[in-house]
Amino acid sequence: MVGFTDLAIKLQELGVMDFLLPFILVFTIVFAIMRQTKILGDNDKFSIVIALVLALLFVIPHITGAYPAGYDPVQIINESLPSVALVSVAVIMLLLLMGLFGAGFGEPAKPVLAIIAIIFIVYIFGSSLNIWQGPSDVFTWWTDETTELMLIFLVAGVILYFITRKSGEGMKLGDAAGKFWDGLTKMFKKS
C-alpha cells in the first residue's frame, strides 16, 4: 500500500517541485499580468505564448544547472514560499479571530479586540516555532490542567457577563457578533 509520503517522494523524484510547480506559478503570474494590462490587446494567444516562453526560460536553466549557486530563482521560490504561506495563514487566522470578536481594522471603537487577536496569533505561531517558553517552563507548578482550568474560568466568566448584563449596557459588538451573543444570552436565561 502506497502512502502519502511515498507519493510525495515520487512526485519530488518526477520533478514536480523543481519543474512543474514553478513553471505553473510563473506562467500564471505572467499570463495574468499580460491579460490584465492588455499590453498586446485583447488577443490572449500572444499572451499565452509569451507567458509560456518566460516560464520555460525561468525553469529550464534550473533543470540544466545553468544558474550560478545561490542565485537559482526556482530554489529561492521553493525555500521562500512556505514562509509566505505561513504568513498568509497567520493573517487569515488574525482576521478570523477579529471577526469572531466582532472587530475590524477599520473600526476605531474596538482596537483592544484587534490587539488581543494579534497577541493570540503571535503567541500561537511563536510557540509552534519554539521562540519563547510557555508558562510551564517558567513556573514549575504550571501544568496543562492549570491552563485548561484558566480557559474554562475565562469562558465561563464571559458567558456569565453576557447573561447577567442589562440590555444596552457593556461592550458593543458588531451586528453579527451582537446577534450571536444575544442568542447565547437567550439560550442560557431562564424562561
Can you characterise this structure?
There is one protein chain. By secondary structure, this protein is mainly α. It folds into three domains: 4-66, no CATH class; 81-132; 140-191, no CATH class. 73% of the residues lie in helices and 0% in strands. The chain has eight helices and no strands. It has helices spanning 4-14, 16-37, 44-64, 73-100, 111-128, 135-138, 144-164, 175-188. Helix 2 (16-37) packs antiparallel against helix 3, helix 2 (16-37) crosses helix 4 (73-100) and helix 4 (73-100) packs across helix 5 (111-128). The chain starts with a helix and ends with a helix.
Summarize the topology.
Blueprint lengths: L3 H11 L1 H22 L6 H21 L8 H28 L10 H18 L6 H4 L5 H21 L10 H14 L3
Short précis:
The protein has 191 residues and is mainly alpha-helical. Helices cover 73% and strands 0% of the residues.
Secondary-structure element series: HHHHHHHH
Number of domain modules: 3
Strand content: under 5%
What's the pLDDT, averaged over the residues?
76
Q: Helix/strand/pairing class, anyone?
A: mainly alpha
User: Which runs of at least 5 residues are low in confidence (pLDDT < 50)?
Assistant: none
Question: What is the subunit organization of this protein?
Answer: single chain
Tally of alpha and pi helices: 8
> In which range does the helix fraction lie?
over 70%
Primary descriptors:
3 domains; single chain; elongated; 8 helices; mainly alpha; 191 residues
